[in-house]
Every structure is written in structure tokens, then in C-alpha cells.
From TrEMBL, chains A, B:
Keywords: Lyase, Metal-binding. It comes from Halomonas ventosae. The keyword Metal-binding applies. Residues 17-290 form the Pyruvate carboxyltransferase domain. Belongs to the HMG-CoA lyase family. InterPro entries: Aldolase_TIM, HMGL, PYR_CT. Pfam families: HMGL-like (PF00682). NCBIfam families: PRK05692.1. GO terms for molecular function: hydroxymethylglutaryl-CoA lyase activity; metal ion binding. It comes from the Bacteria. The lineage of its organism: Bacteria, Pseudomonadati, Pseudomonadota, Gammaproteobacteria, Oceanospirillales. This is Hydroxymethylglutaryl-CoA lyase. Gene3D superfamilies: Aldolase class I. One of its GO terms (biological process) is ketone body biosynthetic process. The keyword Metal-binding applies.
Length: 317, 317
């Protein structure tokens, strides 16, 4: 019994966790009617005031396909003087990557799903075709010097069409992707696209993949949803198995009008609250973040899912 | 880096976790208008069909003070033939304990808060007076042979009046209580009464207390709420630091009409879902549990807070 407890008491918190605020991309995209650019700027401003230093600010994608993201360039320009901010943007293809770099984005997010069927549904390509596009983006980045790549591995735990995803399926796609990435600084995010992952599954996937993929320019992230109530637990289990970065959305903004019960990314304030309890540094001020969450929750058409916003404010600190 | 990861990959799931279903006590008590006894029986029946084997079925308390619990004896009688069920009941004092034993309850739950101010508010006694009452109950139990005691340490992490509670405050009350308990089989529950505990705080309290209090007849439980979104994470962190039992309420039934935003105990179905993901045995069938949760959510006047119930049913298994 003593041995067992000794082996189990290692949940000592890490010193810091990097949080990537994804409300401006995942969240704003989920609101059917595109938000006015100045509304977005006000929200982003509040997030920066709260201490957010990494943010997925939008996508460089066809404005016909996703009109909500059409003003991403304008948003980047509005915050061009924020040298301390690390903005990233999602790029679906080479031309999106070129646009993003031209606008001054140094961190490109490329998404490929582990499951063929979800990749087809999401980007209308096979996984192989997505990896070909990735190779083109990598070639572009290799000539850029200080740019880096975030690889979002969608459906790393569960696919809405194929069900549970095994870690070796993730390993397969990641191995093929890494073979293309050369010396690029790469952040790999295992994405729980559906929110259906459980903490032990998250732990196992990170454990297996971190053991198999190591390198000085490789870091790990977790991107999750709280739909099944696993949001905070999954993030913490990821952190204790190699993730140094977690994606969250302020106010839990997100959800999908076509998936009843689906919620947005785990709320940034819920994760920061958990981290603060272990004196884990995130750089984020919780009370200012809650002010940002209130502003985001007031956006017309947004669905939010935050626990902490429901708690009386004087009981949060 | 390798060493660090090796030290952090020990989140291997335990073989089993005991779940104590508390909806019939914490949950039904939260509904202002007492439920008809036959409604309660139908819900309890469904919970048993789902595989629940431990249940806090009610309280032996003044029916004037808490009319919602007046039929606890009738509920125990209705399930007297369920030899495999381990029913417990809350008893506030010696006469409640005598009533419970007379009705056939073998496991008595006694609550004392770690904070003086909450104990006064909750049971109108000082902690010292509660411990005197505990001594009388222990004396009664020592003559009973196969009876055992669950000690619920309220406000083990946070008090609504005094704020954060340090582990050594819990240690103090627990030490005084254990000195009274002799050879009794004792299950100690650290209760996050307000839901404000964080996973690292839960881990630290269990780590400190389990190290200081060991014995062949001592087991550990965690009782938590999901108000701050920490429910599942707190339960898992407790489990990985010595808790073998967790209290949860089907459908997350609970909340408090006087505390806006307060929610019930962590939903049983949310925890079972998390445990199933690690093949942790709880004995509970999730789809039957969700049927019970639907019945409980349909009770008039009940507030529920379950993530899993919001997910389309075909996406749960």
C-alpha cells in the first residue's frame, strides 16, 4: 500500500503551462453571422489585457467557405504593434500560408485529421493529400527563418464517423508528417475534436507518442472540448504526460449548430482556475479573463459553456 | 526530459473505484417540496438496476428540520430484501444513529465540518460538540458488531465563510475524530462542500492525510461538486492519491436555491464515463445509469448538472 501510494503521488504541478486562446478562431467561427471586425478587436483586446500571450487569431481560408474568418488579416494588422504576442493562424493550404506570412503571422496552424473520413468531411481531401499540402507549406516555411508550425492532429482520440482512434493510428499520421518537417520547430497538438476522449485515453496517447517522437524542436499540445465534462481532467492528464501547451477558448465559446449538446473548447477560465490551484504559471489574470469572458458571452449568436462564469464572482478568487 | 516524463507517466488507472450514489440524500434533499416516497422508490430502483451497490439513501434527522428526508425509514424498508446493496444514511446525532440502526442501516454517515463557522451554520454546534456527539455514536456502534462509520469531513478544502482550508486543519479534526473511533471500520471522506477545490489541492490534502493516517480499517473517500468545473478532475486526482471511494449524484442532482450557480455533486454518469475510459471497474452500466438520470432529471423541482446527459445518446457508449 505504501509503495502504491508513493507511486501515485507524483501529480506535482508543472511550473508553467502555455495556453493558446482559440476563441478568436474556433469560437468566432462557430457564430453563424460573422461578427463585426471591431467587436472582435474589442474581445481580443480584453484577452490581451487578461494576460493571454498566445492566440489563434483566425484562419486564412476562402471567405466564401468561411465568411466568419474573412477579416483575419485586418485583425492581425490591428495588433501588429504587439511584439510580445504570439499570434497563430490556421492555414488550409499553401496559398493560405503565403497570405498568413505576408500579413506577418509567424506561426502557422495546419490541421490534418487522423481518420480519413473526418479529414474528407473537414477539408475534402484524403490524409495523403493533406500531407502533400503540408509538404508545400513546410517548404515555404523553410525559407522563412523564424517561422514555425503547429500541427493539429484532428480526431486523435475519437472520430464522429469511425469511433475510437487508437494511438498507433495517430502515430502513423504523425510519423508521415514529421518525415516532411525537417528541422522546423514543430508543435504537435493531439486534438480531441469531439470531446469524447477520457483522461486515461489522453494519458495513454501522450505517453505512447511522446516516447516515440522526441526532438529538440518538438513540443506537445492538447486541444480539447468539455462536451462530456472531461475538459479540465483531460487537459491536466495531457499536461502530466508531456503536453506543455493547451488550447482553450475564453467563455467556452464554440459549439456547433448542427450537433446538439456539442460545446466549445474547454473554457480558458476553467483551466486557469485549475492551474492557479497548483500555482502553475499561465500568465493569465483570472478576474480580467472573466471580464473578457463576459464580453464574449454577450456576443450575439454565441454559445458559451463556462463553469467559472456561473459562480458568483466574489467566490472565484 | 526522459526522467521527467518517466516520473509523470504514472497515471495508470486503478482496478476499481467504489461509487457511493448520493442523489437520494444530497439530491432529493435539495428539492424544496418533498418528493412522494413512491417517486423516490422508482428512482432508487433504477439506480440499483444500473449497478449501483453503495447508496446514501437518506438521513435520520428531524422531519421538522428537513421534511424531504422524513421517509428515509420507509425507503430502507422498501429495499430491505436487497442483501447485496450497501445502504448508508446520514445521522446528525445519537438518536438518529439509534433510529438508523433500528431500521437496519449498517453504515452511518456522520458529518463534521473542518471549519468552525461552517459547522455552526450546518449543524448549530461547535466542532468540539460535534466530536462529543461522534463519541456517543461510536460507543453505540461498538456494541453493534458489523456496523461501520463514514466520517464526512465537510469544508475539507474551502469554507464559504473562512475561505481556503489548509490540510493541517483537516488533519487536526481528523486526528481528534480518529482518537474516538477505536477499532471501528472507518471511511473518511474529504468533502469539497463548495466545489471550489482544485485538483492539485485535492491531491495535496490526500497525500498529506493518507501519509499521516494509516490503518487496516481505514479507507478514504472524496465527495465533490462540479460547480467550478473541477468535478471529474478532482475525483481522479483524489483516486490517484489514496481515495478508493467517490460520492457522486446521478444527473448531478443538487444545487442550492440560495446559492446562485451552485450545482449538485459531480454527476455519477460523468465520473463513470471517465472511469470506463480507463477500464476502471465501478460495476455501473452507463446506459442504464443514463436512463436513471433521465428519470431523476424529470422530477419536479430538481436542478440537474450532467454533461453526459446533454450528449446525443448514441455518442455515449
Amino acid at each position: 500500500m505504501n509503495d502504491e501510494i508513493a507511486a501515485m503521488t507524483l501529480l506535482t504541478p508543472p511550473e508553467r503551462v502555455d495556453i493558446v486562446e482559440v476563441a478568436p478562431r474556433d469560437g468566432f467561427q462557430s457564430i453563424r453571422e460573422p461578427l463585426p471586425t471591431d467587436e472582435k478587436i474589442r474581445c481580443i483586446q480584453r484577452l490581451i489585457e487578461a494576460g493571454v500571450t498566445r492566440m489563434e487569431i483566425g484562419s486564412f481560408v476562402s471567405p466564401r467557405a468561411i465568411p466568419q474568418m474573412a477579416d483575419t488579416g485586418a485583425l492581425v494588422a490591428a495588433f501588429a504593434d504587439r511584439a510580445a504576442m504570439r499570434f497563430s493562424a490556421l492555414v488550409p493550404n499553401l496559398s493560405g500560408a503565403e497570405l498568413a506570412l505576408a500579413e506577418g503571422i509567424r506561426e502557422l496552424v495546419f490541421v490534418v485529421s487522423v481518420s480519413e473520413s473526418h479529414n474528407q468531411a473537414n477539408v475534402r481531401r484524403s490524409v495523403g493529400q493533406s500531407l502533400e499540402e503540408l509538404a508545400r507549406i513546410v517548404e515555404l516555411l523553410e525559407h522563412e527563418g523564424n517561422a514555425c508550425l503547429r500541427l493539429d492532429l484532428g480526431t486523435s482520440f475519437d472520430c464522429p464517423y469511425e469511433g475510437t482512434i487508437a494511438w498507433h493510428q495517430v502515430d502513423d499520421v504523425l510519423s508521415r508528417a514529421r518525415a516532411l518537417c525537417g528541422d522546423l520547430h514543430l508543435e504537435v497538438a493531439l486534438c480531441d475534436t469531439t470531446g469524447r476522449a477520457t483522461p486515461y485515453q489522453v494519458a495513454e496517447h501522450f505517453r505512447q507518442l511522446v516516447a516515440r517522437h522526441q526532438g529538440p524542436r518538438l513540443t506537445w499540445a492538447f486541444h480539447g472540448h468539455d462536451t462530456y465534462g472531461m475538459g479540465v481532467a483531460n487537459a491536466l492528464f495531457a499536461i502530466h504526460h508531456g503536453a506543455t501547451t493547451v488550447d482553450t477558448a475564453c467563455a467556452g465559446l464554440g459549439g456547433c449548430p448542427f450537433a446538439p449538446g456539442a460545446t466549445g473548447n474547454t473554457a480558458t477560465e476553467d483551466l486557469v482556475y485549475a492551474l492557479n490551484g497548483g500555482q502553475v504559471y499561465s500568465g493569465i489574470d483570472l478576474s480580467r479573463l472573466l471580464a473578457a469572458a463576459d464580453a464574449i458571452a454577450a456576443l450575439p449568436g454565441g454559445q458559451t459553456a463556462s463553469h467559472l462564469r456561473q459562480v458568483p464572482r466574489d467566490r472565484v478568487a
